[in-house]
Amino acid sequence: MTTSTQYDLRDEGRRVMDQMKQQPNPVVEARQLMSQTIMAHVLLGLSDAGFYEYVAGKDAFSMGEAAAALKFDRFTFEAMVEYLLGCGALVRQGASDTFALTDKGKRLFNVYTRGVLNVYLGGYNAVLRSLGKVVAGELPLNDGSLRRSTRHAAAGTAYSTCAFTIPDVFAAMRGTRGKVCLDLGCGTGDFLLQWVLQAPDARGIGVDMSGAALRQARETAQAWGVADRLEFHEAAVGPGPLVVPQGALDTVEMVTSMYMLHEFGRDGREAIVDVVRALKTQLPGRHLLALEVEACDPEAFAAQTPPAAHFGRLDYRLIHQLSGQGLPRGQEDWHGIFRDAGCTIVEPGKPTGGSLIYIAGM
Ligand SMILES: C[S@@+](CC[C@H](N)C(=O)[O-])C[C@H]1O[C@@H](n2cnc3c(N)ncnc32)[C@H](O)[C@@H]1O
């Protein structure tokens, strides 16, 4: 770590004073950066502890009642509430211990915000807070302690896609065929759950290699009373046929894959082609809908006019690099992959947020 033995703090201080004569003010920027970081931790902490579920649907909450119901440490909870009060996310009602969410608070507590916090801060917290050690070569990037929190990443993806991404996927699926959907890399099954809830005759078959995610998916299907229309199989998607119980895929009319195909790209482009070719061999004639985040070239990203409103695509790219997942690919690249696998392009890439919906005819 650098110390003041290596540089003259008086010179450093003068540099800040010089910068402060210009706009934007670097002191304000530094404070904003830190406040956003602290706010993100406060919000994720409340999410982890079940506070969002507690306030959902309520216009206001009593701090005492909430702390008792959730068995919170009263001192910590009060400190967090006071912080959010100061940030303008909460407003006190009269002189009581009752607080209501302001419009700002409602935005900070919405499902999309929760989703993004869960994916990045929750899912990849270990690697993000260890970057110093990793870049210094003291901890290898593939160290087990840096593994992502799958619980956060899965919940976060479901939360952040339910607002506009999944409705856009459903709209794209309307032009395709059938009611029986095979979702590859289904994770905790949230996409298929939404699929069967939106039409009484819809059915879903989910495949994932994570047994833990599938256990959660089955529980959720039970809880929503749709277990008779959803089935889940533990299997690895790969360059060979999917190994699932005999007959399990007989009724499949369409195939979806949300944010998974790019992962095979860590072994090169051809690895994705091989997987798509294997799917075409096993499920000929079906449409394959793939949802993938847009590619992001950092220099082109920085040169955009007007500048991007946020760094979402850069965040996704960095996290994919750090977690050994394949990088997001461009539209042309995906078209080439589908064609090389023998598919036709049915939907060349419908934008939804920072993602694109592709449909390939197998
Ligand atoms: C980024 S998550 C996306 C989950 C879900 N589709 C969604 O959008 O919320 C990728 C999922 O693919 C699964 N997965 C990755 N490679 C796989 C493979 N070869 N076979 C089966 N599942 C795989 C992971 O276990 C994980 O659940």
Structure description:
The chain is an alpha/beta fold and 362 residues long. It folds into three domains: 25-109, Arc Repressor Mutant, subunit A; 111-163, no CATH class; 165-361, Rossmann fold. It has helices spanning 9-19, 26-48, 51-55, 63-70, 74-86, 103-108, 111-123, 125-129, 131-135, 150-161, 165-174, 190-197, 211-223, 269-282, 298-303, 312-322, 331-340, and strands at 60-62, 90-92, 98-101, 180-184, 203-208, 230-234, 254-258, 287-293, 344-352, 355-361. Strand 2 (90-92) and strand 3 (98-101) form a beta hairpin. The longest helix has 23 residues, at 26-48. The chain is globular and about 70 Å long. The model has no long low-confidence stretch (mean pLDDT 94). The structure holds S-adenosylmethionine. S-adenosylmethionine binds at residues 157-158, 185-187, 191, 208-210, 213, 236-238, 258-260, 263.
Structure in a nutshell:
By secondary structure, this protein is of the alpha/beta class. It has 17 helices and ten strands.
